[in-house]
Specification:
Oligomer: single chain
Number of helices: 0
Helix content: under 10%
Largest sheet: 5 strands, antiparallel
Length: 101
Amino acid sequence: MEEVPGGVSGSRRNEDIALDLMKFVAMTTGYGRTTSSGVGFQGTGAAFSVAGIPIARDAALVEGGFDWRFAPQAKLGAFYQGELAAHAQTHAVKGAFTWDF
């Protein structure tokens, strides 16, 4: 397996009030060879291979969300996370309800 050196730089900020807002923005960069490579396996069973997609050379990482404490023991939250590159994107959305007892 080959490792690709990379780096991430960014900032995060939380505001702690009844509505807790979370924000994160960063840029990631891969250096060197970022093309995909495959690995083949062969043994006593059927042969198979494993391959991956190329690593994006430059991508933006974006996160944002909130936690709303609507009662002393309960809060409701939503969160978005995305990675945006020239030829690939990933997105995730999460929701949460927390009850402290």
